Amino acid sequence: NRRPASTSDERGTGDELHQGVKRGERLTTSTGVPLGDGQNSLKVGDRGPTLLEDFALRDKIFHFDHERIPERVVHARGYSAHGTLECLDAIPDLTRAAPFQRKGKKTEAFVRFSTVAGNLGSADLARDVRGFAVKMYTEEGNWDLVGNNIPVFFIQDAVKFPDLVHAVKEEQDRGWPQAQSAHDTFWDFASLMPESTHMLLWQMSDRTIPRSFRFMEGFGVHTYRFIDAEGASTFVKFHWKPKQGLQSVVWNEALKINGADPDFHRRDLYAAIESGDHPQWDLGVQVFDEAFAVEFDFDVLDSTKLIPEEVLPVRVIARLTLDRTVDNMFAENEQVAFGTHNVIPGIDFSNDPLLQGRNFSYLDTQLKRLGSTNFTQLPVNAPRCPVMHFQRDGHMQTDPQLGRGTYEPNSLSGEDRGPRADVVHGYQSVARREEGPTRRLRAESFADHYSQARQFFISQTEVEQGHIIDAFAFELAKVEDPRIRTRVLGNLRNVHDDLARAVADKLGMPLPEAAEAVVATRTDLPESAALSIL
Ligand code: HEM
């Protein structure tokens, strides 16, 4: 599954093995039967009907009929590349994670960039968040950092994710828009979910129309945990900083590029790598402990918040270089399976309710999308380290475990009692004490939806603020229901009056009362609060 960059046809001939199958010169059926005629089906007489007996025809059409698999339920459109993560600053004092034990240590990596809302064939320059998913093939298993190019998210709890995605995707009664947030259902949902306000500010900023994948930052978003060799844990947030710098286009350019070349971003990444201009990102961390976390007036488990870099600077620990394009879009870009649950010793989760839901969702969706529990055996997903488990069978099993004893413990498949878990070096979840009654009510510490949105707006230059105002006005102008526009403006008044007024002016609307800045954490509150302004 490896090749040097080249544009020549490398199907291979003769005895060369490609994933266990020999490629030959002659055309064959999928079962290897050499074809006598590849151009004509088997018919009766000169002009008669085609025979069901034509197994070669059926073999070919059968396979073609089943070429498509479901596209991803979100992030369907993406583009990938291979590369390496190199450790620049070893941190064994903070984590036992394999990539960071020694300066200079290199770890093979695979990255998939994506848009979120658009379907597989949608255009690259849509105003949208970009996915930034990195798979690192470490000697202690695969570690996925499944992030975005925005440091915060729309919602605080994974239970709202299906609602968010139903709102942002094309409307089910009409089938559009296929890649834009500019429509009623998205803004309806956003206006009723004040927790999305901070993310909306980022989404309306230049961040969501990047110049190319190479000029984007990446963020793990959630608070994760580092765990050291003694089992002690600290909180950590992950950041990818592009060595190329951060660049965006302006909206008019985005519209033109989308029309002229909807593949602009994938073409850019491919062209850069093939020409030897290998993009690089520094991997940085913000590391903090519980005592530091409680000092904030927001919750570090809330994915709609970030920890300002002025308060806690990002420490660079590694560098990612992308130096190889994909050989086969289906085998790599489509079949790659990322998931937040893919962690390695030294990395653990926090109680962020969005992260906890993601840990369930990715594995679940991949069974549907890839069709078999054995998708970890696909070359792009397969660990590069030795694997030993007693999982067996299942659809499309290509790596059957050998021997008689497929259970643990057993004395038949190896020395002594066979392979066993390694209590000392194997993965151990962080030891922690949790207590309290079960409850659905969201914590008060998740309540402030506006302060960081305001900070973000204020931190922008005048030109950037102008772009945010223009983006809100453009998007809301596409919204047909005036109640939705009014609700959004009411929420924006809680961010900054200048912002709300400028957007209202552009829309030719009066400035509504500010939405009641409530603790929008109970199911009854967002609606009653937001609707009260109508
Ligand atoms: C896919 C990021 C929240 C469910 C993805 C991908 C990225 C991503 C980058 C594309 C992976 C790829 O390229 O193959 C994020 C981030 C989130 C977030 C940064 C919030 C911080 C959620 C939540 C859920 C979810 C809350 C569900 C509860 C999914 C699913 C896919 C996906 C089902 C498709 C995966 C597949 O088909 O392989 N997400 N996501 N995501 N995400 Fe998320």
From TrEMBL:
Keywords: Heme, Hydrogen peroxide, Iron, Metal-binding, Oxidoreductase, Peroxidase. It comes from the Bacteria. It is an enzyme of class 1 (oxidoreductase). Residues 28-416 form the Catalase core domain. Residues 1-44, 394-421 are annotated as: Disordered. GO terms for molecular function: catalase activity. The keyword Metal-binding applies. Its cofactor is heme. Its EC number is 1.11.1.6. Residues 8-26 have a biased composition (Basic and acidic residues). The keyword Zinc-finger does not apply. It catalyses: 2 H2O2 = O2 + 2 H2O. Residues 27-42 have a biased composition (Polar residues). Decomposes hydrogen peroxide into water and oxygen; serves to protect cells from the toxic effects of hydrogen peroxide. Belongs to the catalase family. HPII subfamily. This is Catalase.
